[in-house]
Amino acid sequence: MKYQVIEEDGFKYIETGKGETLVLLHGLMGELSNWELVIEQFKDRYRVVVPILPIYDLPILTLGVKALSRYVHRFLKHKNYGQVVLIGNSLGGHVGLVFTVAHQEFVKALVLTGSSGLYENAFGGSFPRRESYDYIKEKVEFTFYDPATATPELVDEVFKTVNDRSRVIRILTMAKSAIRHNMAKEVSKITIPVSLIWGKNDKVTPPEVAEEFHQLLPNSELNWVDKCGHAPMMEHPQIFNAYLEKFLDRILLK
Prior knowledge:
The chain is 40% helix and 17% strand. It is α/β, with parallel strands linked by helices and 254 residues long. Strands 1-2-4-3-5-6-7-8 form an eight-stranded mixed beta sheet, with helices on both faces. The chain is globular. One of its GO terms (molecular function) is hydrolase activity.
């Protein structure tokens, strides 16, 4: 990415632009570059912030969705942004949900895309063939509707990550925490506006997950992206950005 990662008081993040603050939360193995086309679209009208979630830095005994939510809380208090719009993909959406339930006063609106929190069909409890590049390539391609979205660079990065013993243990710990932390009984407490932007062909958090979120969240809208998997902002960024822009115009410019 062309944006410089800022390191400040134990936090690492990207920040660009001015205006109302959009905070983008990445997924379990999501790179900051996953959000690049969202940043490019909105940086001229908004302050866009991408904190690096400390999945590989927190003590493993406390690592979990709640720990990442507490990290986001510390970060937002440190930066003193006021109310923000939280936008989360996959695990990032789950962290956004946990944070919003606990600290709704910090959040003006919430955007979820392929969010965990109800059900997910992730890698499972292990990577039985993590030394096999073809196996990892197949798993990364599973994330998308169009396998070509899994670029060699993306597959290389995931392959490198899952073959780092320390990192793979943390990924599996984090994934198990997300699966255990089902939010079906909590999300109805979220009364702020929520936009669900979902791939119609998401095999990780399938369409019925989006429909259940829509039923449980009292102030939500549901937007479908056709021929799209688990990461609409990567696979169909123009459609994702159009839905996001319409939502932001409605809630921030009224």
